[in-house]
Write a structure and sequence with these properties.
By secondary structure, the chain is of the alpha+beta class. The protein folds into three domains: 2-108 and 120-156, Beta Barrel (Thrombin, subunit H); 163-242, Pdz3 Domain, CATH 2.30.42; 254-325, Pdz3 Domain (Roll), CATH 2.30.42. The protein contains five helices and 26 strands. The strands form seven sheets. Strands 14, 15, 16, 17, 18 and 19 form a six-stranded antiparallel beta sheet that branches. It has a five-stranded antiparallel beta sheet with strand order 1-2-3-5-4, with helices on one face. It has a five-stranded antiparallel beta sheet with strand order 7-6-10-11-12. A hairpin with a 2-residue loop joins strand 25 (310-316) and strand 26 (319-325). Helix 1 packs across helix 2 (17-32). The model is unreliable at 1-16 and 328-339 (pLDDT under 50). InterPro entries: DUF7488, PDZ, PDZ_sf. Residues 163-240 form the PDZ domain. Residues 1-17 form the signal peptide. Residues 18-157 form the DUF7488 domain. Keywords: Signal.
């Protein structure tokens, strides 16, 4: 009888979720065990689970997005009524966990990998962003909301790679302005302060749409980007390269060279390409091109002064040393990972 009652309750949740509103969504989260401590374990179609976690799940991973901490695994419980992504405009949304539903709206859309969407209300994390029919609109993390278009791409795409054309942008005075330029992007034609006017002949209205179109582009294809520089307009045809940094990874532009940093600028991962430079996991970066750095954003900003080589000053056990990085490095990657604490 208990099994029958449970099955009927799930059927009710699936068929009448819209009528039941967010109370039904809370029950569905509870019955599906969608939230476990600080991780999300969301039942999705085809007997799979979408995992959001800072640690690799103890299961066979079918796919992994290293930028957004997303995993796809095969589900063993075969939850009968999985969460589906809403492909239509939602009339209302709420941040929902097993005990509460906080209704609100997205104030700012997700702009690429580094700037997650912002919600109008204070929320508990982690949680699911749902409409009243319990369809996924996104996931709520301590850094903001990862929107459904990124979840949909992760679930449907054969690859978890993202595209990159060597720029980072933001919305300034209702215009999409280039904030940082990748000095390692070959023949990068862009400059800090350029205003992006159009992409492939279509007008650009906001950074969220532009970054999504770039990130979701196929690697090695080409994009036509029109910019305004001062009073003049330029159109550049640029190649889409593979993205190496952003999201839960550092995004200093040195990632494509194999170096990743912690928030306090210690090296956490390094490729064997840099054996010849004498760098080690745990080395702390303190200057870039003669300028002091204290955040990963500082690194990317001062790397824009890159000309022939980037001059990096590191600290190791009280000893300071310079490393000059130049040219293209293409070798097999071997990674080391450590925890780096400020001292």
């Amino acid at each position: 009888m208990l099994r029958l009652a449970f099955a009927l309750s799930l059927l009710f949740l699936n068929l009448f979720a819209c009528e039941g509103g967010y109370d039904s969504c809370k029950l569905k989260i509870t019955h599906s065990n969608a939230i476990k401590n600080s991780t999300l374990n969301i039942s999705v179609p085809n007997s799979k689970r979408l995992i959001y976690s800072n640690h690799q799940p103890n299961a066979k991973v079918l796919k992994h997005d290293i930028f957004l901490n997303l995993y796809l695994i095969k589900s063993k419980d075969n939850f009968k009524h999985p969460f589906t992504i809403n492909n239509h405009l939602a009339l209302g949304v709420a941040s929902v966990d097993a005990k509460s539903a906080i209704e609100g709206k997205i104030l700012k859309r997700q702009s690429g990998l580094n700037n997650f969407a912002r919600f109008s209300e204070k929320t508990k994390t982690p949680a699911l962003l749902l409409n009243s029919c319990c369809n996924l609109e996104g996931i709520v993390t301590d850094r903001g909301i990862i929107e459904k278009v990124y979840l949909e791409r992760f679930l449907s795409s054969s690859s978890s790679d993202y595209g990159d054309v060597g720029i980072r942008v933001d919305d300034t005075n209702k215009k999409v302005t280039i904030q940082r330029v990748d000095p390692f992007y070959k023949n990068n034609p862009f400059k800090v302060g350029d205003i992006v006017v159009s992409l492939d002949g279509k007008k650009v209205y906001n950074s969220a749409t532009l970054m999504r179109q770039i990130l979701f582009s196929k690697i090695s294809t080409f994009k036509s980007i029109k910019i305004k520089r001062g009073t003049k307009y330029y159109t550049f045809k640029v190649r889409v390269n593979k993205r190496y940094g952003g999201g839960y990874l550092s995004d200093t532009f040195l990632e494509q060279k194999g170096i990743y940093f912690s928030p306090n600028l210690c090296i956490t991962q390094i490729r064997d390409d840099f054996d010849g430079y004498g760098l080690k996991v745990g080395d702390r970066l303190i200057q870039v091109n003669g300028k002091k750095v204290s955040t990963t954003t500082d690194i990317a900003t001062h790397l824009n002064d890159f000309n022939y080589a980037a001059s990096l000053l590191f600290l190791r056990d009280g000893f300071e040393f310079f490393v000059n990085i130049k040219g293209e490095i293409e070798k097999k990657s071997i990674w080391e990972v450590v925890n780096c604490n400020a001292n």
